[in-house]
Amino acid sequence: MLLHAKKSLKKMYPVAKNYFGGLLSSHSFSVSDLVHPLRSSNRASRHAIPFKARSFTQCSLEGRSADQEIVIAMGSNVGDRVSTFDRALQLMKSSGVSITRHANLYETAPAYVTDQPRFLNSAIRGTTRLDPHELLKKLKEIEKEIGRTSGIRYGPRPIDLDILLYGNSQINSETLIVPHERIHERPFVLAPLVDLLGVSGDDGTETSWHSLSKCSGGFFELWNKLGGESIIGTEGIKRVLPVGNCLLDWCERTLVMGVLNLTPDSFSDGGKFQQVEAAISQAKLLISEGADIIDIGAQSTRPFAKRLSPNEELERLIPVLDEIMKIPEMEGKFLSVDTFYAEVASEAVKRGVHMINDVSGGQLDPKILKVAAELRVPYVAMHMRGDPSTMQSEQNLQYDDVCKEVASELYAHVREAELSGIPLWRIILDPGIGFSKKSKHNLEVIMGLESIRREMSKMSIGASHVPILLGPSRKRFLGEICNRADPVERDVATVAAVTAGILNGANIVRVHNAAYGADAAKVCDALHKGKRWED
């Protein structure tokens, strides 16, 4: 049995390697979970029997009193699809499902019956003590509560909830088949399912799930047979981020985030935009130069900056925010608030802000995670050790492998955010250029974004695909390299850093000079498209 398991895991590795375009380094799948299942970080894996599926009878006898790990697929193509998903998540949580992970969000072309609106698809991973048929009954009740009625098979529906996997069991009854019988032919099911897995092979539950796929390379091979990552971004299936009333395909082009600091002490433009009129003028300039997002900050996060209270931050922010919402130039653009305070984030979103940019990743005010979940807006989690007053301490600058450690620490933020109720499809990651890093670390991170994604994929393929925001603009390390003491003179150096970042996988660039940033993004996007045409 162990020999068979080890051989199967080794077969899965090249498939996973191919899935990431050959980016995976040499890594041996561990079979330690088969020998010592309690080592797995997954709570339900101790009940798994790797590579031996249990029948429904066994599941009924053994599973009712123990948490079973499950995967539930979600689909919708009627009404406000994103709000429907949000409601479905809340109803599942109140019906005996503890959600631990989310897939990304996919907009997909309809299958089977093609003359209908496009679907949104995703999936969740969680645990339940409900037996499979009790779970099915609960999901049907949720579908009915949301408004689903009987209709054309494969036709339009406000919500569709399907049990893809239940523990390590195979179920074949009159009302339920698990694993879902059509997983192998549905990209809109396999893409979210694969998001919920990691490529390390260290999770016993995932190992048993792969064995249920009836494919030597597991679900990775099934996904690759349908085209895998090569079909993402086509008309058939797109990975999207819900912002405001839009679904952004962040891989279609690089987004430019323009910086608007309302502080007297920011390192680059402190004191320039404290007055409302000056701030509005700068916002208009950033938009005219090509900014897609305006990131408004009222608290300086430069090294050793004095921390304001939430009330002090709001006093600076609100007058500008209220006025900027009125300008016609904001039509089709997005507003982001740069804050680590839950209270500030809440007030800003109530006044029209579309996303939260938290330099602390929820570490300075843990309440912000719950608030972001309730507000249902995108949340940027940045990598930083300590706070602005301690981030450049000798202790916080120690790395053995900066990309590997940044990936691990960012993934810890992702897990906290998801467990707080923020779906993965609303999370953006920022590796924190200039925060808790020496110059050499900043350069390694910019050139190592693919390495960060690859490292994260070992834990979660879904997390490895979320948008990456990069903010090297006018930072000190650029001044050191180019001998430019004045931050304003670092815009050309910023273009070089931004270009390297985009070509290595950044999806959003945060810049002070939006014209330069937008031009750099356009050239990089053209280079990417040229490479795709060649391929």
Describe the secondary structure blueprint for this structure.
Elements: H1 2-19, H2 32-35, H3 56-63, E1 68-76, H4 81-93, E2 97-102, E3 105-108, E4 119-128, H5 132-146, E5 160-166, E6 171-172, E7 177-178, H6 187-195, H7 204-212, H8 218-225, E8 237-243, E9 246-248, E10 255-261, H9 276-289, E11 293-297, H10 310-324, E12 334-338, H11 342-350, E13 355-358, H12 367-375, E14 379-382, H13 402-419, E15 427-430, H14 439-447, H15 449-457, H16 461-464, E16 469-470, H17 476-482, H18 491-503, E17 508-511, H19 514-534
The count of helical stretches stands at 19
Task: Return the average pLDDT rounded to an integer.
Answer: 88
Q: Helix/strand/pairing class, anyone?
A: alpha/beta
Radius of gyration, rounded? 24 Å
Taking strands numbered 1, 2, ... along the chain, how are they ordered across the largest sheet?
Answer: 15-14-13-12-11-10-17-16
Anisotropy-based shape: globular
List how many beta strands DSSP finds. Answer: 17
Distance between the termini: 42 Å
Fraction of residues in β-strands: 15-25%
The oligomeric state of the chains shown is: single chain
List low-confidence stretches: 1-6, 25-54, 56-63
Largest sheet: 8 strands, parallel
Helical residue percent band: 25-40%
